[in-house]
Amino acid sequence: MKQQDWRGVIPAITTPFTSDDKIDHNVLARHADWMVGHGCRGIVALGSLGEGGSLDPDEKREVLSTLVRAVGDRVPVVAGVAALSTRAAVRLAMEAADTGCRGLMVLPPYVYRGSWEELRGHVGAVMSATGLSCLLYNNPIAYGTDFSPGMIAELASEHENMHAVKESSADVRRVTAIRASLGARVSILVGVDDLLVEGVAAGAVGWIAGLVNAFPEESVRLFNLAANGRWEEADRLYQWFLPLLRMDVVPEFVHLIKLVQQEVGWGSEQVRGPRRILTGQERGRAIQVLRGAMAQRSVAEGRDRAP
User: Fold this and answer.
1) Which among 60, 143, 166, 258 is annotated as catalytic?
2) Is 166 an annotated catalytic residue?
3) Chain segment 213-234, per-residue pLDDT in tens
4) Which among 6, 12, 36, 46 has a CA at the least distance from the CA of 193?
5) Which CATH number describes the domain made up of 3-228?
6) What is the rounded CA–CA span in Å between residue 216 and residue 203?
7) Which pTM value belongs to this model?
8) Which residue of the set 137, 143, 238, 258 is catalytic?
């Protein structure tokens, strides 16, 4: 994967489970094919939304293999690389290359935050393990580790194959700060759904997206409108989409996005423990938001001018 390929809408794909807690590879393959068919530019697997931390090592390999077969040469499959130890993360990176993945999304180590030198050594070892193009994932809200623009610049200077940053700090100023520091050296991708338009306006060139798992057509259209400066049209679609996009930025984002997928006919809301399927008022509120959006879907499809 070359630097210029880190553009457009790239789903952080969910991992579908059967009722007996096995991965449904048939649904996984069809789901990836469906999103690519709607204009997505790649597939990121094994991330937080993909419940990568809940998968066994052999399951991770199987997920990557299924996705590589499903999308073929049309788009790159990117493996999320996160582990408790540097050794395990390096092993996963090498296995991802062996399965045919064309990129890595490199996360900080789980649990242990450590010093900057330890963190730099960890992600650096992963980036150096293969020749694959790497996307650095910055999500201080979820992981408690913040890659500052200065740290990102250091890593980019040390690793030629670090081509992009997934910026999920929820601070859109980070996009301009990284651009000021590195220019076009790295591509910046928005990592939280409800900051997409703001992020693109600030200079982001891609979107690692969550609700795209249920709404790929709308997601690709929204990104393209923003990227082409068609702000009025983008805002109209964004206002329709935002109640759904905000499901991506709460602790139950995996449960919610899988529930929305199920309700629109793509996959199951099954999650792997310790997560449990949503019930009660929380589930009811999510269904209400979804039904409200579906009732106004003509706005997203551009068939009327309703607010």
Assistant:
1) 166
2) yes
3) 999 999 999 999 999 999 999 9
4) 12
5) 3.20.20.70
6) 22
7) 0.95
8) 137
